[in-house]
Design goal:
The chain is an alpha/beta fold. The chain has 11 helices and 21 strands. A hairpin with a 5-residue loop joins strand 19 and strand 20. It is globular.
């Protein structure tokens, strides 16, 4: 059904079709908006918020050290994968990045929270100005010292107040240097945050491994949504694996209207109605997304459409091409990681957030390495040798900076423009601009995404979500 309304409105259009992957599966009430209207955010969660807790807090690494500190967030006990970031700024953007779903984020910067938390204001396209998603995504926060008093012209609340409102526990007063040293030596580890309780060694058996959960299912939209661009006539399909707001902004601001699809949507069936396909970032192990990999493989077999992937999207692109991915010892999470462009010899300082990487030696002959990490020599990008398809492990859109590699969006949209012109030669009547009906029908915000509530609840939601998805497909 979506394929019939992308190019224009048909008389007597019926929405109740039988295809299991039709728009009827993702049916939404008709909106009362038209054109490039602001996106409407979902209702905020009502059951997660707690009062700010200042109780004793314990950060426990499984089979490792125990750190005692003080709580400054929600009064909640959670489990997740402990990872660290060396970013000096940008904690609101990092904590709302869907790629951090299920992880306890340890900041190496000694003082966090000094410029507070900004408002959830939206720009002219309805995209969040200061956050990468509507909710705090990390399962927990660990810092050496938190600023309870903040000062910044955009701030409306403290980091502690925000964590409490979002139901996310946070710990301060611990030696983050010792934590990071342990994680670098032992690798990313399972951990727990316990508020107001003494450490109990018997609870080690209660650690939940997020690698066993399809986290992408939690952060991906459950129905297509649309963001219009008022500056161009491109139309790009985004495979939403946990897309960051600034990725959408980077496309829309360059003249590409965006229609985002659930991560497991068979994109190859509708790609011919778009000018390009984009695969977003997201959390967790890429091998959980086998449906996405299959659909991307079918897409590359059946279409010459330009494709770009970022972070998890880059890994999924590699898997679809026949390559393999590996888990890194402790990953790369920072705003200052050097990546070398092998086609030009230029080095770019990049923003990164990933625990997996593409195994370069497994790339097929028609693919080559595009970027490499100058710190650990891991893969940072791949490119097809003859087609407009490439992916980067780092984030060229980098909210919080740096923007050295933002030109890659221009590179991608140049290939989109060439493809659009070539298609116009062979199909003069082809029209891929979104129809008014599409703009009116689809949501303007990701649909049905449940905020993070700790790994124990994620496991239960994962089981319930998979059952619901199976029931929907059966229907």
């Amino acid at each position: 059904m979506l394929s019939r309304i992308v190019g224009g409105v048909k008389p007597g259009l019926a929405l109740n079709v039988k295809s299991p992957w039709s728009l009827a599966k993702y049916t939404q009430p008709f909106a009362t908006v038209g054109g490039n209207t602001p996106r409407v955010p979902p209702a905020p969660p009502k059951t997660r918020a707690t009062a700010v807790s200042h109780d004793r807090a314990t950060f426990t690494i499984r089979d490792g050290p125990v750190f005692s500190g003080k709580s400054f967030g929600a009064a909640a006990n959670i489990s997740g994968e402990a990872v660290f970031t060396t970013s000096l700024v940008g904690y609101p953007e990092s904590l709302t990045d869907p790629s951090y779903r299920g992880q306890i984020l340890v900041f190496t910067q000694p003082l966090i929270g000094n410029y507070g938390i900004p408002s959830a204001a939206r720009d002219e396209n309805g995209l969040l100005r200061h956050f990468e998603s509507p909710n705090l995504q990390a399962a927990g926060v660990v810092v050496a010292d938190v600023a309870e008093q903040y000062s910044h012209w955009t701030a409306v609340k403290s980091l502690g107040d925000w964590c409490a409102e979002e139901g996310v526990p946070a710990v301060s007063g611990v030696d983050t240097r010792a934590i990071v040293t342990y994680l670098r030596e032992q690798g990313s580890s399972l951990a727990r945050i316990t508020i107001g309780e003494e450490y109990d060694a018997d609870q080690d058996e209660a650690f939940v491994d997020p690698e066993q959960i399809n986290l992408v299912r939690k952060v991906s939209t459950k129905a297509p949504f649309h963001v219009s661009s008022g500056t161009g006539d491109f139309h790009v399909a985004v495979v939403d694996c946990g897309v960051k707001e600034n990725i959408l902004r980077s496309l829309v601001s360059r003249g590409a209207s965006v229609t985002a699809f659930p991560y497991d949507y068979p994109i190859h069936k509708v790609a011919h109605h778009f000018d390009g396909v984009f695969i977003s970032n997201g959390p967790g192990d890429p091998t959980h997304c086998q449906d996405t990999v299959y659909h991307l493989r079918r897409l590359m077999e059946s279409s010459q459409i330009p494709i770009m992937g970022i972070c998890l999207g880059h890994q999924l692109l590699a898997l679809a091409a026949g390559a393999r991915t590996i888990k890194l010892k402790y990953g790369n999470r920072a705003h200052n990681i050097p990546a070398l462009d092998l086609t030009t010899g230029r080095c770019h300082i990049t923003s990164q957030n990933h625990g997996y990487a593409v195994e370069t030696s497994s790339l097929p002959p028609d693919w080559k390495e595009y970027f490499i990490n100058l710190n650990d020599s891991s893969n940072e990008g791949i490119v097809h040798t003859s087609r407009p398809i490439f992916g980067t492990q780092f984030h060229p859109e980098a909210r919080g900076g740096p923007l050295d590699s933002s030109y890659l969006f221009d590179t991608y949209l140049e290939s989109v423009s060439r493809y659009k012109k070539s298609q116009a030669i062979f199909q003069p009547e082809r029209e891929n601009r979104p129809s008014p009906l599409l703009v009116d029908l689809l949501a303007k915000e990701r649909v049905g995404v449940v905020p993070t509530t700790g790994m124990e609840n994620l496991m239960r939601m994962g089981e319930a979500g998979e059952e619901a998805a199976r029931a929907a497909r059966a229907a």
